[in-house]
Task: structure prediction
Amino acid sequence: MKVFVVSMRGLHWLTTVVVLSGLLLLSFSCEQKGPRSARSVGVTSEILVVTQNKEQWKGIAGEAIRAYFGQSQYGLPQEEPIYNIANIELENMSDMFQKHRNILLVEMGSKQEKPIVETRADLWAKPQRVVKIRAANPDQWVQTFDEHKESIRLLYDRTERERLMNIFRPTAKTDVAEALFRHLGVSMIIPEGFFVAKTENDFMWIRRETPENSQGIIVYRIPYRDTLQLTDNRLTYTRDSIVSRHIPGPSPGSFMTTDKEFVPPMSQRINYFVEDFAIENRGMWKLIGDFMAGPYLSYTVIDQSKGHLITVEGYVYAPNKDKRDLLRQLEAVLFSLNLNP
Result:
């Protein structure tokens, strides 16, 4: 307990004043990683929030944290939060809790003149992301959190992907990865259990089947002409034209398409993928001619050197089961895309 408080005060943190915004808020290049090598703990998609007292958790700071990280992940057929949230008080921060993968520290005090956001990677364990927000009072703390919550979430997302890659990489299916490279000239880390289900011109379908669920990876390319191909309608049209031809359902004549009514596809530009930018698309797939459906996630990038649009997609089928973490596994795989292996 007291040891933790002393160590917190003595840490050399990367400090960023809150006038900054966006992903530049928390710089990776300047961080100093300590010699800690313990493996981080915690279930998938969980954040440990450490407050100085229970009142902070019950008050507006805790409400802001729960409202943001507890909001429903878009693109799922049932409600699941972006992150599960656990809370402890600072005095209970034992060595076990210090090894949690994602930690958010809440600190308030009247002597804090300006709000500050601080972050460290792999502080007590690896992979790990620790974020601390310091402010003078609850109102100032919430304002600071609201200004930077999306950037903070991106850091936690990155740590989740890193953990999954640490699991997948040692037993990755090199034969599947080699087939992907031979056929489409790109590479990804393909976890154990996946196999090539279909290969045709400019298209590959990779699957993993268990008694409980199915996970699929789809990779395809089309000629790149202009940025109009990256609009929501064109991305959906392209997806439907490809999966309807290549992804059949179990019933005769059934095939995959994109749900446009129950959970319409939603796209956004992101600037932290393999190239300068990518278009992330989340939504639901369904079968025409059958009663199967589930979430999907895709990233479309421009391969300027070859004149192609490359799309990598992951989809999940898990009837009556939670799907968020299965989709997060595929997200980690998609982020391993390399256009120039």
Observations:
- Residues 175 and 195 are 9 Å apart (CA to CA).
- The mean pLDDT is 89.
